Amino acid sequence: MDINTIKSEFPIFSKKINGKSLVYLDSSNSSQKPISVLNSLDNFYKNEFSNIGRSIHSLAVNATNKFEETRISVKKFINANSKEEIIFTKNATESINLVATTFGQQNINKGDEILITELEHHSNYVPWHYLRETKGAVIKFAPINDDGDIIIEKLKELITSKTKIIAVTHLSNVTGTIVPIKEIVEIARKKNIPVLVDGCQSAPHIKIDVKDLDCDFYAISCHKVYGPTGVGILYAKKKWLEKLPPYIGGGGMISEVKKNKITYAPLPEKYEAGTMPTAEVVAFNESIKFIESIGMENIINHEKKLTNYALENLKNINSVNIIGNPKNKAGVISFVIKGIHPHDISTIVDEEGVAIRAGHHCCQILHDRLNLPATARASIGMYNTKEDIDVLCEAIKNCRKVFELK
Amino acid sequence: MDINTIKSEFPIFSKKINGKSLVYLDSSNSSQKPISVLNSLDNFYKNEFSNIGRSIHSLAVNATNKFEETRISVKKFINANSKEEIIFTKNATESINLVATTFGQQNINKGDEILITELEHHSNYVPWHYLRETKGAVIKFAPINDDGDIIIEKLKELITSKTKIIAVTHLSNVTGTIVPIKEIVEIARKKNIPVLVDGCQSAPHIKIDVKDLDCDFYAISCHKVYGPTGVGILYAKKKWLEKLPPYIGGGGMISEVKKNKITYAPLPEKYEAGTMPTAEVVAFNESIKFIESIGMENIINHEKKLTNYALENLKNINSVNIIGNPKNKAGVISFVIKGIHPHDISTIVDEEGVAIRAGHHCCQILHDRLNLPATARASIGMYNTKEDIDVLCEAIKNCRKVFELK
Amino acid sequence: MDLKQLYQDIILEHGKSPRNFGKCDKYTHKARGHNPLCGDKIEVYLKLDKEKKVEDLSFEGNGCAISIASTSIMTETVKGKSLKITKEIIIDFLNMVKNLQEIKSKELDEDQKIKIMSLSGVKQYPMRVKCATLAWHTLTSALDGKKDEVNTEAAE
Amino acid sequence: MDLKQLYQDIILEHGKSPRNFGKCDKYTHKARGHNPLCGDKIEVYLKLDKEKKVEDLSFEGNGCAISIASTSIMTETVKGKSLKITKEIIIDFLNMVKNLQEIKSKELDEDQKIKIMSLSGVKQYPMRVKCATLAWHTLTSALDGKKDEVNTEAAE
Ligand SMILES: Cc1ncc(COP(=O)(O)O)c(C=O)c1O
Ligand SMILES: Cc1ncc(COP(=O)(O)O)c(C=O)c1O
Predict the structure, then answer these.
(1) Looking at residue D156, what is its pLDDT?
(2) Is residue B31 part of a domain?
(3) CA distances from A396 to A329, A344, D147 (A)
């Protein structure tokens, strides 16, 4: 597929916002969906819908097979060892909570340490905070430098004999920092500490290879990977899923249920309680196929070029200040403009059809570190073009006009 | 809308199964979806998609409004006091786990008792079982009689000063028993015991009025209420939601996040962590509108007639044995045939395009009580017709032929 | 929609140079307001005299032009008014930005009315209504002597 | 698809009157199999003699016609075979129902082959494959002396 025609695969781009073409630069928040995904969703509901894994009539058999096909696709997409290592959740937040809760239940005691970083999204902090509240765990924050890179030496120093788990993002949703996960896993491996990776931002934008990363847990949100809302993924090494207790309890995750005793289903069912987002999981297979039809390499190249183009052009606008300058940066560009609050920026560019996000992006710790109450963020998806960036830049210039700044 | 033309609103019924028209009698498992719901889903993704509650651009504003409109519709649908009492989850199983976990954390100690019934689905037992494992709670099962009705007198006797919560289904997914919730709540109220109602089966088939029931918690799965997969609902009295600790932690459910302290968002956000099944929640509004356009009274009447018709006709088939004979029965009909295992029944009727379920329907305790390893179950939805029942009965007769039974 | 309706000169000016910024002397009441969506935070300080008149009123914090301007204009408008009239003005203001109702209070002079009405543009920008109302909810909370901070998510 | 392919007379007959039902005398191995989807449960009892020959083999439990017939036929087929050949037959069987491969083992007589092949119809009924294979997985587990029960969800 030609990278220039990708946009036409996404129906939403025929829509007008305030009379202008939509310039969608909020993909870090959630991505738009290609037509093949929407057709799959629609087709499944219209022609094939059934609950899975429970009934044995023809519809149910077909639905179950399709559902499991997505699991196999995900396994390949992230290069997991087996499909038992792929658990479907409702979003990455649930994936991380699943690990924090079950791992915490089994392995965290008073005084034990959990090591996260200043880059983390609330979804990779609040679940660990619960263990601080309920178990008396200690949370340590590996610091970042002014460029937005984690200071690996400092992270190393923070590891003690009490460190029970390291939880770190693969790609910052504020600075665009690509974190050297392999390096961190190697450090952790030497001390036998498991590593959870928040892969929310990385999954749509860089090649994921969990075998190569050798991390223990990897969390993904499908709605950010050009898929439907309502589905997340937890990858976990089989040994963990076998060892950890179950999480949500209910239908589908049990083996035998007696009045005095319950045994649980084998993997992956053990962690998939209740009716799953069946249609959405089935449709997510098309998201993976879509990405693969283009090729992750091509997507990376395209987004890289666009990011550089955007950075150059934004830097040329008087008084735009880009947040962070990490060694390895993906298409997440947060910025501030002196004299204009990010919220006002967002409202003003929206008038030109430009969708960006303003606020703390669920990263209050990072904003405290940067000493900023809020930032504006333009984030790039595979469907963005140079024209999108041009419109963004013009719209930003307009902010200064509206605010009568020289 | 004419009850006889309802079926035409469901696209799936133009499909053929094994060359035959689909006779879908597995609605207790999951219901089919009307075209208006699917159009809403498709339209939202194609023209309006954005993450909600975070960004302030036009798409996000519109999406957030639509999302909140569904919350208001749900509030009205079940007659809750305020929209803060409506929490969106991923399914009813999560809704019940949310209550068991947070209520248990705060109110269950060693030796405390949880009272459930022999009718309960695993989703209303396993979450409580966790409290038995982690907290040393005791689970008591209110017994049923041979008709499949809960013996209220026995339930009363099982209440002690240690009973901390009563969790009970509104409508059995095996016997079709409609449980007298009001009566149970009145008993519980006198002893100040909160009541959780598993409303999975009731929500699509009887009028829900949580104010009238006066229950504390009510769990619903939208996919059983003619809605998309991936969405559940928890209704809870505001006083509980205010008092109980948060459940899943992450983006969207916080107020202020510091390195040493976290405060949580007000209701309902406190319980809605991470990106929600946005499109699915938006589309669920159409499910409610669809039900209301027909009128719950009309649906109840239609299903009542059909249930009676089915019971009469099934009873006339030699050796079909209907499970349970509750005082008040909805359109859930489980049965066995002497000499033919339910799985074989399901396979054989499937050949005629008839989708029923075979197994223990996530109710092993109930099947133990009935001394049956498995049952076959035909369950009725608003789209079923007398012709569906006729096809089912013919297909069942065929089972005896295939098995060469006289 | 017209951005100039939202960002009127009065608002830009108050946004840039807010009045009554800082802690006022010997305040008797204070309250904190917070908009978690954008991270806007303000603290309102209030001095009620014996006759229950708002003798002094000031604020600290940061936020977008709309929320700072709204807070600044609020302090200017309410200072010197009695408790009762202050509450009337708050209700007037909230009705205006949410339902575009006119300002009814007879206790405001033309200049004050114009300033308050300069905030009516937010009605066209639903996500920004909270920016405009944060200060006013926080003032109510300060007057009521509530301990909890105001949270726009709960306030709406 | 044809139901008669699935429910061949041999299967119906074994389903109705299973052979080797009950606990066999002085069994040396046993294992439990469970199909959580349908609740089918079987227990396989096995007596290996000193030469590692399956001297006796029986089962208890309940399930659908397919799973009972498959178990019954399995006990008939395997009884008297050496451990090595038993394992060969198990692999043969699993290959047959999953991939429609022919029975390769030379240790089965025609009658036994026909009986085993009567189960090949499940290939057309994916949800029923587990019914047919439960017994065979459970036998493997008994031979391996595993403690865990076999669970069809894990076995496939
Ligand atoms: C009575 C009852 N409770 C709970 C559930 C669980 O619902 P879900 O699987 O949608 O979480 C079901 C449906 O399977 C049910 O029938
Ligand atoms: C880095 C990061 N982690 C976690 C999340 C949470 O993802 P979700 O809201 O889909 O659970 C997000 C997205 O908001 C994110 O950007």
Answers:
(1) 42
(2) no
(3) 22, 11, 68
